[in-house]
Write a structure and sequence with these properties.
366 residues; signal; 4-stranded antiparallel beta sheet; single chain; Flagellar P-ring protein; structural molecule activity
Length: 366
């Protein structure tokens, strides 16, 4: 059995003693300052024979017929099987305070059996919000990120040619009805809720204005009193505070990805003194069939005699090794590396240490 080499990655995360200051705008979301998701259903034309198969994607024929009829072309009852069109979903994000006439980027993804959208052009597609209203219209040439090369007996695909983007491919047609200037208070929502971080944000904001304008409501929310700030508008207040720096606090966490063998350990992770033993079993099966043929001009037939060699090897493992209580990330990494095991086995060891109650951190498995 040949075992795939896995990658072990230890990442040094921010701790309280070495925490770097982060801008407020990177830690919180401002209430009312948010984008809106848009989606539309459209048609891509101009493909080089890589479009949808009409029999496998009847919705492509339907939308194409509706589009041609709106343009004054009657195709009712006609049998046509074009290979240069594809049905797609078009998605975009309407940024906060977007104004009519502005441009936004869109993403185009095939929903049928199209092989590639490379070189295609998206025909005018309305983009709807969650309320069903049209907020933008998309159209333009698609930039696909994949490559397809094929012959009669082989086909090579690199990347994802069935999805692409159109930079500035949609024009905003409707504005969000929201008056930011009427707000008397703005809530700051922490992206990673934490009581200590919220308390530091409250302290920094009150120190900046020299009076009490911010109040921590919970671990994920800090309320900002716009009227108490004494500035002309909420926009002026946000512009003044969004670049203030705060040292965030993070929870101790270990994140592992069993598929790639990646292990991420935060600086605040601690392990109590514990002893670990680890070993492996290796099963090896080898097939060496032998062909037996009759003598020349003799009667008989050629047969294949199977020969199988199977054995189980028990690796010595690490024995019983002691991992001392780690007081820093470097000591913790040194203790785990002293076990001398592969990353995949390291994940199992960390699980067992957590089950034993010696790993003091959140254990997240992806």
């Amino acid at each position: 059995m040949i075992r795939r080499l896995l990658v072990l990655l230890f990442v040094l995360c921010c701790g309280p003693a070495l925490a770097d200051a982060v801008r407020l705008k990177d830690l919180v979301e401002f209430d009312g300052v948010r984008g809106n998701d848009l989606v539309g259903y459209g048609l891509v034309v101009g493909l080089n024979g890589t479009g949808d198969g009409i029999r496998n994607a009847p919705f492509t024929e339907e939308i194409m017929s509706n589009l041609l009829e709106r343009l004054g072309v009657n195709v009712a009852g006609e049998a046509y099987r074009p290979k240069n069109v594809a049905a797609v979903f078009v998605t975009a994000s309407l940024p906060p305070f977007a104004r009519a006439g502005g441009r936004i980027d869109v993403t185009v993804s095939a929903i049928g059996d199209s092989k590639s959208l490379l070189g295609g052009t998206l025909v005018m597609t309305p983009l709807n919000g969650a309320d069903g209203q049209i907020y933008a219209v998309a159209q333009g040439t698609i930039i696909a990120g994949g490559i397809v090369a094929e012959g009669q007996a082989a086909r090579v695909v690199q990347g994802v040619p069935t999805a692409g983007v159109i930079p500035s491919g949609a024009r905003v047609e409707r504005e969000i009805d929201f008056d930011f200037t009427t707000l008397h208070a703005v809530r700051l929502a922490l992206r990673s809720p934490d009581f200590t971080t919220a308390s530091r944000i409250e302290t920094v904001l009150n120190r900046e204005f020299g009076k009490r304008i911010a109040m921590m409501l919970d671990s994920g929310t800090v309320e900002l009193d716009i009227d108490a700030a004494g500035m002309r508008s909420p926009a002026h207040v946000i512009g003044r505070i969004e670049n203030l720096t705060i040292a965030p606090e993070t929870r101790a966490r270990v994140v592992v990805d069993q598929r790639s063998g990646t292990i991420v350990i935060g600086q605040d992770v601690r392990i109590s003194r514990v002893a670990v033993a680890q070993g492996n079993l290796t099963l090896r099966i080898e097939e060496t069939p032998m062909v037996v043929q009759p003598n020349p001009f003799a009667e008989g037939e050629t047969i294949v005699v199977p020969r199988t060699n199977a054995n189980i090897n028990r690796d010595p493992g690490t024995g019983l090794a002691e991992v001392s209580g780690g007081t820093s990330l470097s000591e913790l990494v040194a203790g785990l590396n002293a076990l001398g095991v592969a990353p995949h086995d390291m994940i199992d060891i960390l699980k067992s240490i957590k089950a034993a109650g010696a790993l003091h951190a959140d254990f997240v498995v992806n």
